[in-house]
Amino acid sequence: MKFLILASVLAILLLLISTHAEGCNQGDSSESCKQGKLYPTDKCSPPVTKNTKATLTLNSFEKGGSGGGPSECDGQYHDDDTRIAALSTCWYNGGSRCLKRIIINANGRSVDAIVVDECADSNGIVDASKAVWKALGLDTNVGVFDITWTDA
């Protein structure tokens, strides 16, 4: 009997350690955030704060560009000279940030961008257009840069 109780407690502890519901706001009913569902701990980390650390990647949102199909938020392609971005699945939050502005900080500069897409199956990524990279004074040939960002 003691073994059964101990095994049950251990199973519950392992479940609590390996999963949690971070990223779900009260009343959030988006596809990616169902109340009562447990999410892997790396699914929504880091949470969005005033200076959320992320990796900026370069993407083309134009038809035929490196981004693939049209943007999730509006079903359209976007010019590379427009300051736009895609967010990792957790930060995209089922589309709750669609067509909203975010502020990206890097290289001593800040720039705003409109969220138009999701970076599916990624964590900690802000995927941005060439216009964002240029506004931040970054070399687009590098293609990856450490940044911070926040909601506008």
What keywords describe this structure?
Barwin-like endoglucanases; 2 domains; globular; alpha+beta; two-stranded antiparallel sheet; 152 residues
Characterise this structure.
The strands form two sheets. This protein has a six-stranded mixed beta barrel with strand order 3-7-4-6-5-8. Strands 1-2 form a two-stranded antiparallel ribbon. It is an alpha+beta fold. It starts with a helix and ends with a strand. The chain has two domains: about 1-40, no CATH class; about 45-150, Barwin-like endoglucanases. The chain is built from three helices and eight strands. It is about 20% helix and about 30% strand. The protein is globular.
- Strands ordered across the widest β-sheet: 3-7-4-6-5-8
Question: In percent, how helical is the residue content?
Answer: 10-25%
Question: For the terminal residues, how far apart are their CA atoms?
Answer: 56 Å
Compute the number of strand runs: 8
Output the CATH topology of the largest domain: Barwin-like endoglucanases
The amount of beta strand, in percent, is: 25-35%
The structural class is alpha+beta
Total count of domains: 2
Say which CATH homologous superfamily of the largest domain is assigned. Answer: RlpA-like domain
The main pleated sheet reads as: 6 strands, mixed, barrel
Quickly name the level 1 CATH class of the largest domain: Mainly Beta
Number of helices: 3
Radius of gyration: 18 Å
Q: Mean of residue pLDDT?
A: 78
Indicate the CATH architecture of the largest domain: Beta Barrel
Basic shape? globular
Uncertain parts = 3-43
